[in-house]
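Rotation project, supervised by the postdoc (A.L.). Task for the rotation student: set up a whole-complex structure prediction and record inputs and outputs verbatim in this book. Inputs entered:
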Amino acid sequence: MSGFEPVLLRNVGVEGVRTLKVSESRGGWAAARKALTTMTPDEIVEEVRRSGLRGRGGAGFPTGVKWSFLPKDRKHTVLCVNFDESEPGTFNNRYLAEHDPHLVLEGILIAAYATRADLAYIYLRAEYHELFHILQRALDEAYAAGWFGADILGTGYRLECHIHRGAGAYVCGEETGLIESLEGKRGWPRIKPPYPAVRGAFGRPTVVNNVETLACLPAIIERGAEWFASIGTPGSTGPKLYTVSGPVNRPGCFEAPLGLTVRELIEGDDFAGGMAGGRKVKAVIPGGLSVGILTADELDCRLDFTDVLNYGLLGLGTAGAIVIGDDADMRKVLANTARFYAHESCGQCTHCREGTGWMARIAERIAAGAGRIADLDLIVELCGRMGMMSGMSICGLPDGAAYPIRLIVEKFRGELEEAIGRQPPGYTERYIRDRIPSVYALPVLQAGAAPARERAVPA
Amino acid sequence: MAWKAIDRITPADDDGDAPVLSEAVREKIRSFFPRYPEKRAALLPALHIVQDAVGYVSHRAMRDIAELLDIPPAQVLDTVTFYSHFWTRPRGRKVVVACRSLSCHLTGAEAVIEAVKRHLGIGEHETTPDGAFSFVTEECLGACEQGPCLLINERLHGRVRPEDVPRLLNDPDNDRLDVPRSDLYDGIRGPTGEMEGRA
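Outputs recorded:
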């Protein structure tokens, strides 16, 4: 990437940058000082709106616009920092905060000041143990230096910031699920409206922002909205952290302007450096599991907020690419994907709870070599009925389940059908009979489902 | 499955009359109250603290927490059973969590999971007879670039190969963090400390 200087990852590899002293010597916290001492909250909101910054957590909602939904006459505001990061293939926030915790904290202070929040919670997923200690120690140091607490920089502005540890639930990454979990309840997403901006955590106006989104703020304050908007593609401004996992030479987290092609991300020398062990790309899940899948012919897809839609994907997601090599069995990829959503469905909405479980069982059967061609149609039909009717479920989890599952079946149908065709005759029936004998206890199904050849032989 | 109880979260049969949490544990839980506008929001921290100190969250501990937080015990149970991180019956001193999501799957997680089961001689959600290890698999641990990965208590091990598993599990320091700890949470106690939190 010629001419691009890393913005978010500029401190990676700098000795001791987890400490406040080194962070400040590298220009850390200067933007927060500028924001608090020379700008009003509304000026910051306007600057962020003009920068075109869109949320990096998956939905891509414009951050400045989100902030402007807060009621004007509010007394208390809560800022929730979404560090639940549970989307398979996504680890950019962990990588960023592990290397530069003070950049994240500085972004939190700027966002809290802009939204006039007096309470900030970092909702950190439970599995990030090491990161918790890194972040908590950085927070302690920032508190001691007066960046949090009462009367920050003598401006009279007060902000309390705490890390709230999650306990292992994907759905807590959904903003209202996160708020419920913060309040000590099960992480069941809420029906909206009211939106969190009006009535969120503890009944107060609440903003939920992703970590990477907040980490963009210091650079926007320091270098201006125009500079930020000049990076990336139209409608998708700024730098982005891309992550790559799977059988590539250099799996990891990389920074580039929005609009990088999938091919560049996988094959570029500055990025993942090509496939490992002489494999070829068979498929790529480009933005975290929920966005869907690209075939090897679709690698020119640009990772920004618009081009991904041309490939039938749900959206940019988190730009966390999972690369699938030509040695992988798509039946197993399908089963692994379906199982994830069945495990993580919160169980509130019937079609999601039952639908994801049903799809997982069908996909598991296909992966076990007992699939039927009709199962593929059934899955596509289920994805239509269960997920695609937007607005019919409390949160976006069933949409996020339906996209990858449907696209795997649609885009890799040939391979799946071929695998099903190679199964020994009668195996599906034997597999089902072994596992769900009750199905065969029903005479109607027995007559309809068992092949004629088997029925002719008396038991 | 967040809405479906699995076997290891069947509450242990130790719902006695006497409170189970020590004063030190209660005090630590109370120290989290000022962080939230409502006391009940300290429930997740309280559950972490109890699990760190006692090893798991028993029915009796749930009642104690409910009393501390002024909420019905049913609300505590409701929250506990939603999250896969909490155990409601005794577990091994070291909990081995294997990631089974797609990135790890593609880089060889299945073989690693089999190697762990073979080495420990237990299946998923089970604990070794000597109480040293419990084993579970989880969805994405957020360390996809290091796949396949294993979490042993607080410590993440990346790029694990099946042949590394015996050496890794036999290493007494396999759960030690490389970074300095914050003292806000204690983490899972060592072999002698597991009952310290009890009254």
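Student's summary: Chain A touches chain B through 70 residues (CB under 8 Å).
Supervisor addendum: The longest strand of chain A covers residues 157-165.
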